[in-house]
Write a structure and sequence with these properties.
Order of helices and strands: HHHH
């Protein structure tokens, strides 16, 4: 019986925590905050990568040039 009550209280607190977190994220979005991990390449660099890939440069070469991972270059390439 006691464990059931403790479990119910824990679940209630968890639900409140989730609500507060979601409310904070929504408020941050409304205020214009950028959420998540920062981009490795800015818009100009992404455009340059797309141009370089189209002209035949290798993904590995571009990754070394921009000091980022091959996966980042491939994501930019595939988003085009």
């Amino acid at each position: 019986m006691v464990m059931t009550v403790i479990g119910a209280m824990a679940q209630f607190e968890r639900d409140l925590l989730i609500e507060r977190t979601q409310a904070g994220l929504e408020r941050a979005k409304v205020e214009g905050a950028t959420l998540g991990r920062p981009r490795t390449l800015d818009a100009a660099q992404r455009a340059a990568v797309r141009t370089a890939v189209a002209s035949g440069k290798s993904v590995s070469e571009l990754a070394r040039q921009y000091e980022t991972s091959r996966q980042t270059i491939m994501r930019v390439r595939d988003a085009a």
